[in-house]
Design brief:
Layout lengths: L7 H33 L11 E7 L5 H13 L4 E5 L14 E5 L3 H9 L2 E7 L14 E8 L19 E4 L5 H11 L5 E4 L3 H11 L10 E4 L8 H4 L2 H10 L2 E4 L5 H4 L1 H10 L6 E3 L6 H6 L2 E4 L4 H9 L3 E3 L19 H9 L1 E2 L8 H9 L2 H14 L6 H21 L1
Helix pairs in contact: 2-5, 2-15
């Protein structure tokens, strides 16, 4: 018996090629069928029963806070919308919308296959990488819109993450410049860039107001890293956590959700190492607001949770990013440093490995800084525009795109 091994990267490329060919043949065949049907019907126009005006795709239930304010606004406007979910337990299925139809379409390649055959006027998603790998631009979709799911740089995605969208919805004006630079460098079509605010922060702000008041707990440090080789747990792991445990502070470690898949061995080794530590706990809850609220200061790296913490709670943080590897990201193609890394030294304190020996003192100094507190407020105003209005603004934009497409069709 001869066995063939295909590595994940090659498999992904083969899937992309096959799906591309299949979708092309599908739409060519459908176009021919519609043409024949048009002739046989005496020239009467027909429409596909599977064509939708507006589709929203959510690749995970953790993006519910991004889409809920938008769906609520669309519901109020009575705009028929189809919501495709890749989480079978997505919160959308427990909401009794009248104008929103929700459907579970599976995960990964199963979901991408469904989306690659999509027929819709407009499709909105948080998923980047359109027309790069498995997720292809469907010939049946007229307009693809991307909405950022954090107040981060728009160039923080993997290479070509936003290149082939028709529009990108931003949280602040500062995100526009670098997208335009990449478009010029790569010779690609300019996208429509619209500042709409940040739906998920608007939604979380409501929840923060309803959180129970914090009980008398000891001083608490939250470690909330991103994942990958540049993340805290992968880069420093025990050397950082050992120093934190020795401070006597209460320590909460909340790994990125992707770490449970991509860094499973690292997490298992660390959990075993600190199994007996009385002042260290692990948090894997779906939503992070409670643990953010419980802590007095946070340590992170290049994770967007930094801004959730600073903007929702105006609490201090330490960050580690001096050795961040930008090569896999769009930001690598830019000479100017991303906004995130320019603003971090102004609103937080960089933590370096040689600081681990005095980390307790550094934590206390950072937590008492009134200068950092004021600068966090200024950054908040820059990155999170139109507070409380983002859902309506996104809905208005989508309705405008639909109207424009209808108008061009009628001309």
């Amino acid at each position: 018996m001869i066995l063939f091994y295909i590595d994940p990267g090659t498999g992904s490329m083969l899937f992309s090629i096959v799906i591309g060919l299949v979708t092309m043949l599908y739409f060519l065949g459908k176009a021919a069928f519609i043409k024949v049907k048009f002739i046989l019907s005496g020239g009467k126009a027909t429409t596909s029963k599977n064509h939708y005006p507006l589709v929203i795709y959510s690749e995970s239930k953790r993006y519910w806070n991004v889409f809920k304010p938008v769906l609520d606004a669309l519901e109020r406007k009575a705009i028929p919308t189809v919501y495709y979910a890749s989480s079978e337990d997505d919160p959308v299925f427990s909401v009794a919308y009248k104008h929103i139809t929700s459907e579970f379409i599976g995960e990964g390649n199963k979901a991408f296959t469904r989306l690659n055959f999509l027929e819709a006027d407009v499709c909105l998603m948080t998923t980047p990488g359109l027309d790069v790998y498995q997720l292809k631009r469907s010939r049946g979709v007229k307009h693809y819109a991307h909405i950022l799911h954090s107040v981060d740089d728009a160039t923080g995605y993997r290479l070509f993450g936003l290149d082939y969208f028709d529009s990108v919805l931003l949280s602040g004006e500062y995100q526009k410049a670098h997208i335009r630079l990449l478009e010029t460098q790569r010779g690609i079509k300019e996208k429509e860039l619209v500042v709409v605010g940040c739906p998920y922060l608007d939604e979380l702000q409501k929840k923060v107001a309803d959180l129970p008041k914090r009980k008398n707990e000891s001083f608490t440090v939250l470690v909330a890293p991103s994942w990958g080789k540049s993340g805290i747990l992968s880069r420093y792991g025990a050397s950082l956590l050992d120093s934190l445990v020795q401070t006597g502070f209460s320590i909460i470690v909340r790994p990125h959700p992707q770490s449970k898949q991509s860094e499973k061995e690292i997490l298992e080794a660390l959990e075993m190492r600190y199994k007996a530590a009385q002042n260290l706990e692990w948090d894997y809850s779906n939503e992070n607001l409670n643990v953010l609220s419980r802590s007095d200061i946070m340590i992170s790296d290049f994770s967007g949770v930094i801004f959730d913490y600073a903007f929702l709670f105006n609490k201090p943080f330490l960050y580690v990013n001096s050795n961040f590897d930008a090569r896999p990201y769009d930001a690598y193609d830019l000479e100017e440093q991303p906004w995130k890394f320019r603003v971090l030294p102004e609103i937080g304190v960089e933590l370096q490995e040689n600081d681990f020996g005095r980390i307790g003192q550094l934590i206390l100094e950072t937590s008492k800084s009134s200068i950092l507190e004021e600068k966090r407020k200024n950054a908040n105003a820059t990155a999170w525009q139109y507070k409380g209005k983002s859902g309506e603004m996104v809905a208005d934009f989508l309705v405008g795109v639909l109207a424009g497409l209808k108008e061009s069709k009628d001309m």
